[in-house]
Amino acid sequence: MATPGKLAHQRDLGLDDLWQAIHLYMNLAYPEGKWPEPVARRLNFAKAGSLLQILNQRPFEKSPNMAPGNGPIFSLRLGNHFYPCMKLQIQPWPNPSKYLLSVNAHDQISSLEPCGADSEAFRALQCRNQKLKEAIEHAWAEAGLPTFVRFLRNYLAASPCMPEPDAARGPGTPSGTG
User: Fold this and answer.
1) β-sheet bridge partners, residue 139
2) C-alpha of 145 from chain center
3) Local structure of 20: helix, strand or coil
4) Rounded to an integer, what distance in angstroms lies between the CA atom of residue 4 and that of residue 14?
5) DSSP for 106-171?
6) How far apart are CA 109 and CA 157, in angstroms?
7) What is the pLDDT of residues 124-143, one digit of tens each?
8) Residue pLDDT, tens place only, 33-69
């Protein structure tokens, strides 16, 4: 039995998957194909060794998972062409792959003054980050990589259909035809 943090829950994640996720992320986050030097250094991580060894080294960050019994969340700060703090995350998840990929926009600041001078510009930044996050996660799902949306689609597709309650059918619709 593996201990938390030993990546037993992520045994199906391969280096090829990780590199595919990074490639898709970078294509959308930096459409010009150029990224800052700190990002280039982060992408130059060791490619030899097990995935666990790689994820437990710099430049990957490891955060504790608040869900009991789950391993840590690993992240790689890659930013984007207008915001340097966005991260690619690998987190444990109760799906067949045992993990999912997500983008953390890293822009949820609770201390921001709601009516402050910069609040409108910051909300616009958050909106741009959200759209980019969704585009990256969509590209991952389309490529067959595990994301929450893909997990949810598979879950719903595998769930038996529930009959509609009578109230949802509307007036005058016979039972069984709605």
Assistant:
1) none
2) 10
3) helix
4) 19
5) ----TTS-TTSTTHHHHHHHHHHHHHHHHHHHHHHHHTT---HHHHHHHHHHHSPPPPPPHHHH-T
6) 36
7) 888 999 999 999 999 999 99
8) 999 999 999 999 877 777 778 888 999 999 887 777 6
